[in-house]
Each structure stands twice: as C-alpha cells, then as structure tokens.
Amino acid sequence: MNIGMIGTGGFSKKHADIFTAMEDVKLQAVCGTSREKAAAFAAQYGGGSAYDQVADMLEQEKLDAVYICVPPFAHGDTEQQLIERGIPFFIEKPLAVHLNVPNDILHSLRKNNVITSVGYHFRYRDTVASLKKELENHTVGMVTGGWMGSMPLVPWWRNRDTSGGQFVEQTTHLIDLVRFTLGEVDEVFAMEANRVMAGQHENVTVADVGAAVLKMKSGVIVQLSNTCLLPEGVSEVGIRYFHSGGMIHVDMNSLTICGPSEERKETEAANPYVRENEAFLHAARTGDTSRILSSYEDAWRTQEITDAIMKSAESKKAIQLGGN
C-alpha cells in the first residue's frame, strides 16, 4: 500500500512509526507546511516524495490511503479533495475548530462512499472493552472525569480560534469515551475561565479551567472538567463511572473495578494506536470497515458535543443537541 501523510508533527510520526513497520505498507509521499519539513519527515522512513501543497501531492501520486494529522484550524479543503478522489483517509481528532467545517465534510461523505477513520484511540483499548462489558450488568447513575494537565507549547493551541480550546482539542477523548459507553448526549451546560495562563504567557485566548455537565439521553448525568494550568509533568486524566454495583475508574493506562468486597485492576495489554492503524489500513485494502470503531460520521457526533460545550460557555445557557 502506498500511503500519503499530511502533516509532519508528533502524531504524524506516531502513525508513520506504526504503519511503516507493517508488511507491504510504504510511506509514499508527505505534505508539510514546507517541502523541507516534508522531505525531512520522509527521510526518517526511507525517503518519499515531498510536497507543500496537498493538491500537488494528490495529482502526482497514486495513493491507497492518506493520513491527515494537522491542527484543528487546518481541516476542510484537504478532506474535500480526498473525498472527490475517493481516497480513504484517517484523521487525527478533533475534526475541526467549529462544527461548520465537519458539517460540510459530512455532507460530502454522505454523497460519496469513502472509507474514513478518526483517531479516537481509547475505543481500541482492551480496558475499554472490559469497561463496556462490565457496564452491561449495572445501571450507571453518574460519571465524573477530567483532563488535568499543562498547556501545550505550540502557539496554535493557545489560541481559541485555531485550537478550539481544551474541550475541543483534548477532553474530546473523554467525551467520546462517554458516548462510546453510554450512548448519545441530550443537553450540555458549561462554564470556563482563565485564571492563570493569560497572565503568564502572551497571546493566550483559551480558557485554562472549565467544567461541563452532560445529560445523556438515557438520563445519566456526566460532569467533565479540564485545566491546562498545571506545571509540566503534573497531570491527571481519567473518568469514573458510578453504578448500582460500585465504581469503575479508567485512566490513561488502566481500569479499576471497585465493588463492595473486591477491587480488581486491569492494565493495558496492547497498543490501541496499532489497532486503529490496522483497522483503517485493513479497510482501505479490503473495503471491510467492520474493525473501524470511529468513522467520520460517528466522530461528528462527538464534535457536535464539544461545539455545544463551547457555545454554552459563551452564552451561559444550556444547549440542546439536535443531531444531524
């Protein structure tokens, strides 16, 4: 398979490290913000054509699949070009800053049968499979969780217009996990503030603390918080499910099940990034999408929630979700 990569950052490398180790998979072409960056990236994997324009890459290369690993603000035209050419594509989350861009892409996808996958890798974890199985036996009442960490150094992340903010860019993983395990969201209410970071750094327009309450269609109440004001190296990311039989805690690497008379812990046995790459490339090669756990259309519903959270924080009103 000949693979194209759009983007030359950390997640581009994470995926390229995985798929170039697979049999009969080759990094054929890279498109970056400059040809120099693209060439340097490609050189890590035995070379490959370098481009600074997506249209040029798609015109000159015969690609079996393309990875899109770019900041939130850079989505839109690239996806439309791939849809027009019928090329399967994998996107790192989030889909965009605001919902209007994914709306247009989803409209195009519904008219064209193109294979897609979105990088919500939590879905591919063994511990999440165990979580879903455990929840089948209990009635969940409430969920709490948070993405607590430091602010990424890249300038685009600190600008709300280019990153969307922490709920859109990071906490989206927890929101997607809630959807994956509990179904769809009916209503959201959120609040945000900037307590520290805007005073310490220039050009910070994202909030550094925030909280959102999600009412699920099932009636479950979910409270998710996030902050990016912690010092580098200090973090806590996880989610807790409170149910009729006890409590389940999921963090970045493990699952802990707590009941009246036992506590059982499972650690991650396999790399979920490998699994999501295998699922996508299998689909691109064979047309069988059954192993893909997050299609573009499914990920759109997670983006709808983060978009509603941001609108609620701005308007100070609860937002009802309508679906599409």
From TrEMBL:
Pfam families: GFO_IDH_MocA (PF01408), GFO_IDH_MocA_C3 (PF22725). It comes from the Bacteria. Residues 1-120 form the Gfo/Idh/MocA-like oxidoreductase N-terminal domain. One of its GO terms (molecular function) is nucleotide binding. InterPro entries: Gfo/Idh/MocA-like_OxRdtase_N, Gfo/Idh/MocA_Oxidoreductase, GFO_IDH_MocA-like_dom, NAD(P)-bd_dom_sf. Residues 147-233 form the GFO/IDH/MocA-like oxidoreductase domain. Gene3D superfamilies: Dihydrodipicolinate Reductase, domain 2, NAD(P)-binding Rossmann-like Domain. This is Oxidoreductase. The lineage of its organism: Bacteria, Bacillati, Bacillota, Bacilli, Bacillales.
